[in-house]
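Example 516.
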Amino acid sequence: MGTNQPKWLDNAVFYEIYPQSFCDTNGDGIGDFNGIISKLDYIKELGCNAIWLNPCFESPFGDAGYDVSDYYSAAPRYGTNEDLKRLFAEAHRRDMHVLLDLVPGHTSVEHKWFRESMKAERNEFTDRYVWTDSIWEEPQGMGCIRGISDRDGSCAVNFFSHQPALNYGFYKPDRPWQQSMDDEGPKATLEELKNIMRFWLGMGCDGFRVDMAGSLVKHDEDGKGTIALWQNVREFLDREFPSAAMVSEWGEPDKSLQGGFHMDFLLHFGPSHYNDLFRCAEPFFSDRGKGDVSEFIAKYKENYEKSERKGLICIPSGNHDMDRLARSIHGDNLKIAFAFLLSMPGAPFIYYGDEIGMRYVENLVSVEGGYGRTGSRSPMQWDSSTNAGFSSAAKEKLYIPQDESADRPTAEAQIADKNSLYNEVKKLIAIRQSYKALQSKGEIEFIYAEKDAYPLAYVRSAGDEKILVVINPAAREVSFDCNIIPKESIYGFGGTMSFADGKITVSPQSAGYFRI
Ligand code: NOJ
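Predicted structure in complex with 1-deoxynojirimycin:
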């Protein structure tokens, strides 16, 4: 399978934009495409050269746009398809790339396909979703929508109960209503998915972040059906859009890679141990120095080896589904966390506002199906003007209330402060971009990642270029046995490191990159 990896992905540093909350130019309290266009220079200046845009299609917004009601139309609140097309063009003009968020597993109940599929008479969309053939039979283990259609049956849901599951078939159908992947209905769903991709790639988008990519074929325990489905998509892309980039929300890079994705996301739930790093009672990235990185690294290594060191895992600083990084770690800990995030393989993803340490806004009422996630989705804080420069709307009209603290971080203030988190992140991105070993495809070898111990150390390499990374969030000096003597320091934060007598000794709260 000839998976074309677009060259730009090798050196991509992504910035995730939640369009609702980024920049509002028409004063309705909700961000828009023109707002994003107006901030492309800010993103570029930070050093990010790629964007992941959360869903921006027509939707009743019961799950913030992950409940699409028309895949072919931009949501009017963000602008028009033409505006979105202009966003792609403006990004390209700056040598940046844009991934749209593709939601292939479910739609909104308001999608016309679903309304048609609820009808008693057979029609083109009868088999577009996973339906049982009797209202009294529920699809096992999936949750369902029932009792709202003339059609006699229950429809499986994929996430919230207003998100009916699109039908890509069952790996091994064992009930009369379960269709196989080769049946006409599932085949038509897949062809429609390709049409959607074709449409947006034709408009100039550079690829997709794919929502819940591993869950399309049902009762597919080993993922074989879903892998085959994505291989089919890959063939289409290789034929028609060979430079399209594909990043999956799957959490199993070996499977995702087999499916033809270029990179996979590390998930904050499931077995990844990602939360051990930043979001638990004793995170590794804390000066308290009571965290444990070893299980995260063990799992990371397992996935890395399973995918023959090729299944690239993207580690996000955060995203719209998890607590803000700055909810559990603060101050220099954030800088040290970025020294790690920006020196790992796979493309790093920076969630908008994390580069300035935006906080999780506590005690909010849920907005658009956000629930506990709402506090991580508050509007970007640009400057000291009204609504932190996000919008000219009355405060009560803002999409989500902002952080009200007097000392809330803003981009403007951090750009001006040379010791800010923003400037540290900018420096780290620039270093990553000047050394191939630090970029997406550079190899990684862990040198020190012991249970309940600090620091964390690893070597990144590409050809002859080798870079040792040492990260010590703990507020105490630590050391470990290692014979490496570096040639040159290329990044240092928080103190010195000494290399002598077969030991590396690391100052409290410090991070360093060294050419070896
Ligand atoms: C994952 C998305 O990131 C999340 O925001 C959404 O609610 C679910 N998938 C369902 O689409």
